[in-house]
Design goal:
It is built from 8 helices and 10 strands. Helix 1 runs parallel beside helix 2.
């Protein structure tokens, strides 16, 4: 299977081409530019460098949400446009799960946290054992305190092991609070594993494709998990 994968759901923009067990190229940038400036040029660059004919890819993988509303719209619009033009299916990867795949093969719990503002994080808890994915907490938007309480409850009940690793753009913001409030062994990802990577998302997408989780370009739309700020403010005004 050959995939073009992209992720613009957070601060990082990333694109990759993966063919079966080989990552042909990955281009990742985390530096002061909008994804509308970076994503298409990055895709164009890796396509040229690997002499890839996009008509030969089997599917297009994209971070489907949650995340930055603008970033998700840019990624989804790019994936939809390519999918429609090339007549290729879309694999919409839950953003938090794709981020967790940075630690595919790690036998202990993996907990991505993305800053969702308004006192919340986008998160989920996963584990990878014997090549299989386990889900302890489906991706959701909750407060950090609620997440930490959930982790302690699951560890105390014996349903989840200790040594949780945290990763994602929420780590720099919430690391001190996690260290102070979480009373079970935990650690934090190093810089090269902390952010979104299209290569990891692509590996996740291949597994989702095997599970039959694909859609047409026309069907695809981002999963924001909650209303945008403008939508919330409009709803509040109409109360």
């Amino acid at each position: 299977m050959k995939l073009l994968a992209m992720d613009s759901s957070g601060l990082v923009a990333s694109a990759a081409i993966i063919e079966d067990e080989i990552m042909r190229a990955e281009y990742t940038v985390n530096y002061k530019k909008t994804h509308s400036q970076t994503l298409l040029p990055m895709i164009d660059e890796i396509v040229k460098m690997t002499e890839t004919d996009l008509n030969e890819v089997d599917a297009i993988a994209v971070a489907g949400g949650p995340g930055s509303f603008t970033g998700l719209r840019i990624g989804s619009a790019t994936a939809k446009g390519l999918g429609l033009a090339l007549d290729k299916p879309i694999i919409s990867v839950p953003t938090v799960l794709g981020l967790a795949y940075n630690y595919f093969g790690y036998p202990q719990p993996v907990c991505p946290i993305m800053d969702a503002r308004r006192g919340q994080v986008y998160t989920g808890i996963y584990c990878f054992r014997d090549g299989k994915r386990m889900t302890y907490l489906e991706q959701c938007a909750i407060s950090l305190q609620e997440l930490l309480a959930t982790i302690e409850e699951m560890v105390s009940a014996g349903t989840m092991s200790e040594n949780i690793v945290f990763l994602g753009d929420g780590v720099p913001i919430h690391r001190k609070c996690i260290d102070e409030q979480l009373h079970v062994p935990h650690t934090f990802a190093p810089p090269h594993l902390n952010g979104q990577r299209a290569g990891a998302l692509g590996v996740c997408a291949m597994q989702l494709a095997k599970e039959g989780k694909t859609e047409t370009a026309a069907e695809h739309h981002p999963d924001y998990l909650r209303l945008s700020q403008a939508e919330r403010e409009r709803a509040e005004r109409n109360l």
